[in-house]
């Protein structure tokens, strides 16, 4: 019964409370703005893409070593640059200040 009383904060003494504006709730409970979290998710996706590119192509025969696949441009240059770009983007998402409309 106590859990039910906690969840019924909308109706008190037969009166209906006005709903709190979304912007007020948005800034009250979270450390960052909603758009910063979206930017962080994009940055994390870019980082994962970079690590997937580092996996690269494999060799079908385990007895032979194919140097061109192991030390390819994709694995050695492109993928680390994408990972670093993703980390920079996540850092930007954390440090940015949201624009306020007054």
Your description of this structure?
The protein has a domain at about 35-95. The chain starts with a helix and ends in a 7-residue tail after the last helix. β1 (about 10) and β2 (about 15) form a beta hairpin. The protein has helices at about 1-5, 20-30, 35-55, 65-70, 75-95, and strands at about 10, 15. The chain is built from five helices and two strands; from the N terminus they run αββαααα. With about 100 residues, the chain is mostly helical. It has a two-stranded antiparallel sheet with strand order 1-2. Helices cover about 60% and strands about 5% of the residues.
Give structural attributes.
102 residues; mainly alpha; two-stranded antiparallel sheet; 5 helices; 62% helix; elongated
Could you write a compact summary of the structure shown?
This protein has 102 residues and is mostly helical.
Write the layout of secondary structure elements.
Layout lengths: L1 H6 L3 E2 L2 E2 L5 H8 L4 H22 L11 H4 L2 H23 L7
Antiparallel strand pairs: 1-2
Helix pairs in contact: 3-5
Note the run of SSEs as H and E.
HEEHHHH
Instruction: Round the mean pLDDT to the nearest integer and report it.
Output: 78
Instruction: Report on the biggest sheet.
Output: 2 strands, antiparallel
The overall strand count is 2
Characterize the overall form. Answer: elongated
> Percentage of helical residues?
55-70%
Taking pLDDT < 50 over at least 5 consecutive residues as the criterion, the unreliable ranges are: none
Based on CA atoms alone, the radius of gyration comes out at: 25 Å
First-residue to last-residue Cα separation: 43 Å
**Strand neighbour order, sheet with most strands:** 1-2
């Amino acid at each position: 019964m106590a859990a039910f009383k906690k969840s019924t904060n909308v109706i008190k003494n037969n009166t209906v409370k006005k709903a709190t504006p979304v912007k007020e709730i948005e800034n009250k409970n979270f450390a960052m703005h909603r758009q910063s979290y979206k930017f962080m998710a994009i940055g994390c996706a870019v980082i994962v893409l970079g690590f997937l590119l580092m996996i690269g192509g494999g060799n079908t025969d385990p007895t032979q070593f194919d140097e061109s696949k192991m030390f390819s441009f994709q694995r050695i240059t492109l993928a680390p640059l994408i990972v670093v770009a993703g980390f920079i983007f996540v850092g930007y998402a954390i440090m940015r200040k949201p624009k306020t409309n007054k």
